[in-house]
Amino acid sequence: MTVELEKSPRPVGRLKIQKRADLVTEEIKQLITQKNLRPGDKLPMEKELQRLFSVSKSTIREALKSLEVQGLITISTGPTGGATIMEVPLERTFQLLQNYLFFKEVSMEDIYAARRLLEPELAAGSVPFLSDEQLAALEQNIQTCQPASQEPSLLVRQRQADLDFHDILAAANPNPFLRFACELINEMLRRLVVFSTQTPPEEHTRFGCANVKIHTEIAKAARARDSERVRALMKAHMEEASEYVKRLDGRLDGRLILDSEMAPRPRPLS
Amino acid sequence: MTVELEKSPRPVGRLKIQKRADLVTEEIKQLITQKNLRPGDKLPMEKELQRLFSVSKSTIREALKSLEVQGLITISTGPTGGATIMEVPLERTFQLLQNYLFFKEVSMEDIYAARRLLEPELAAGSVPFLSDEQLAALEQNIQTCQPASQEPSLLVRQRQADLDFHDILAAANPNPFLRFACELINEMLRRLVVFSTQTPPEEHTRFGCANVKIHTEIAKAARARDSERVRALMKAHMEEASEYVKRLDGRLDGRLILDSEMAPRPRPLS
DNA sequence: AAATCCGGTTTATAATGATAAATAGAATAG
DNA sequence: CTATTCTATTTATCATTATAAACCGGATTT
Asked: Domain of life, per the record (chains A, B) (predicted)?
C-alpha cells in the first residue's frame, strides 16, 4: 500500500501550499484515525514510512517530530523501537496552552473569574464518585497544609499543596471537559503564581489557615456525600480566596515553559 | 557568543536524557524569553543557529520544526527568510487541545455543563465593552440565522452561525482567560457537533427559532447596556439549549483535526 | 514614468549516506 | 538462578549535495 502525495505545488486554490513534511504529518494522522489506533499501538518504522509515502528520511523525521511535539507519539530507539501512539499527556497540553497565553496578559483575577464559576460545580459533581482513597487523600492533604513556618519558599510550596486538594477533587469528576478546565486552572495557579515578596508573611499565614479551615469542612461534607453542601462550601471558599488573592497582589509570571520544567508533579490517584 | 550544550549523555540525575534537538529547542525558547523577542522579530538564520549551538543542519531543523508546530514561529524562504516569532494563533491552540481530548470521551452534555456556567458571566462582562460594530454584527448575525430551509447540510451550517453570535460576545470580553475558555467551547461545538440524522428536521427548526428569539432579546439588552439582563437572558438561553441538545442527540465527532481543516473561520471583528 | 519580466542571490526544503547512540533480547559467566 | 556481556536492530546525529522558493534589482516593455 502506497499513498500518493501531491508532488506539484498544488494548483493554488487560494490554499497556502504546505510543506512535504506537514503533508506527511496529516497523512499519518489520518492513518491513526482511520485504523483507529489506540495508545500503545505502534506506527511502522521510519524506513517503512519512507517507502509508504515515498519521501526521504529527513522528511519523515520531521513529520514524526511534529507528532511527537504534539504529544501524540513517543519515539524510542532499539529493536522494537519506533513511534508509539500515546495519549496526549495533560502536561504537554498545558505547556502548549502556556505558549498561547505567553503573549496575552492574564491576571490572577481573570483566572479566578472562571474558577469561581467552575469549582463549585466540579466539587459537587465529584462527591458521588470519590473513592475511599481519594477521601483519605483529601484529609491527608489538609495535614500537609497546616501552616508551619513563614519561610518564603515554604509558603509558596504550601500554596501549591493547597492546589493539590482541588486536583484530587477534579480527578474524581466524571466530566472530562470540566475536569480539564479545572486542572488547567490549578496548573496555571500552581506554576505561574508569584506572590509579591512585599506582602507581609502574616497575610500568607492567614490565607493558609483560612484554606485549611474550609478544606476541612469540604472534606467532611464530601465524606457525608453531601453534594449540595460541598457546592456551597466551595462557593464560599472561592469567594474568600478571590479576596485574599487580590490583597496578596498575586500576579502571573508570563514566560515560556520549558519541557524540562514539566516533569515532577505527583499525579493524584485516580 | 556560543552556547555550550552538554554533549555527554548527562550523568543521569534520574532525569531522562533529552534529545539534542529538544535541548536546542529549549535554548531557543530561553533566547526568546531572555531577549524579550516580540512577534515579528526574527531568529538568526539556520546557518548561524548551527554555529551558535554547534549542531548540524538537521538538528537545528528539528528544533525549529518543534517551535513551528508549537505555533511560536513561522519559517519562510528567500533572502529575508528564516524564523519569525509569532503570536500563537488561537486555531493552533485549539488543534493541540483537540489532540488531548481525542482520547477522552467528551459528550455534548459535558461541554454544556461548563458552558452553562461560563457563558452568562462572559456575556455580562462583555456588555460594557461592545463596540457599535460589534452590536451591529450581533444584529446582523441574527438575520443570517433566520431558519430558512430544512436541508440537512444547511441546518448544520445554521447551528454554526448561531455560534458566531457567541463568538462576537466573547471577542468583546476583557478577560483573556474567560474569553479563551468560551471560544474553545464554541470551537468544539462548531467543529465537532454532528447531530443525529434520526432527529426530525422540525425539531432542528424549532431549535433555530428559539435561538433567534433569545438572541434577539440578548442583542437588545446589550444595546441598552443592561449587563444584568444579558446575564439572565444568557442563563435562560443556556438552559434551554441544554435541553434541546439532549433531545437532538448531539454528539461529538472525536477525531484528529488536521491543519488543513483549520483555516477558514471568519474571525469576528475585535 | 510605471509596470512587467528576468536572472542572480539568498534562504529554506529535500534527499542520501555514513557514523554514533540506545535498547531489547540472546548468550554467557559466576 | 542472577548478573553481565554481547549483538542485532533501530533511532539520533552529522555531513554533504541538490532542489525549490522568495526576494532584489536591473533591463525591458508599455
From this structure: Bacteria
Confidence of residue A9 (pLDDT cuts 50, 70, 90): very low
* Better pLDDT: A188 or B216: B216
| A137 shares a domain with A74 | no
Task: List chain C nucleotides near protein: any atom < 7 Å from a Cβ.
Answer: 8-18, 21-25
For residue A96, give the chain B residue with the closest CA. Answer: B70
Q: Is residue A142 part of a domain?
A: yes
Same domain? B119 vs B71: no
- pLDDT tens-digit readout, B147-201: 666 666 677 778 888 899 999 999 999 999 999 999 999 998 887 776 666 667 7
Residue B118 placed within a domain: yes
Q: Is the pLDDT of residue A182 over 70?
A: yes
Distance from CA of B158 to the nearest CA of A (A): 25
Residues B207, B75, single domain; the answer is no
Give the A:B interface size as CB pairs under 8 Å. Answer: 149
Indicate if A113 and A203 belong to the same structural domain.
yes
- Which of A110-124, B139-153, B232-246 has the largest mean confidence? A110-124
If one counts the domains in chain A, the total is: 2
CA angle B129, B132, B138 (to 5 degrees): 90
Domain for residue A12, yes or no? Answer: no
CA–C1' span, B76 to C10, in Å?
A: 12
Q: Which residues in A49-65 are b (16+ Cβ under 10 Å) and which e?
A: bbebbebeeebbbbbbb
More confidently predicted of B235 and A157: B235
**What is the separation of C-alpha A86 from the centre of its chain, rounded to a whole number of angstroms?**
16
Based on the domain organization, do A94 and A212 belong to the same domain?
yes
Q: Are residues B35 and B155 in the same domain?
A: no
> Residue B34's domain spans which residues?
20-85
Query: Which residue from B162, B164, B161, B167 is spatially nearest to B182, judged by alpha carbons?
Result: B167
Cα(A235)–Cα(A239) distance, integer angstroms: 6
Cα separation, A123 vs A113, whole angstroms = 17
Asked if residue B162 lies in contact with residue B210, where contact means CB atoms within 8 angstroms, the answer is no
Distance of CA B266 to the CA centre of its chain: 13
Distance A69 CA to D8 C1' (A): 30
Last residue of a domain, one of A85, A106, A123: A85
Amino acid code (one letter) for B135: L
- Whether B35 and B129 map to the same domain: the answer is no
pLDDT given at position A5? 44
Residue B227 shares a structural domain with residue B241: yes
* pLDDT at A13 (0 to 100): 34
Nucleotides of D under 7 A from a protein CB: 8-17, 20-24
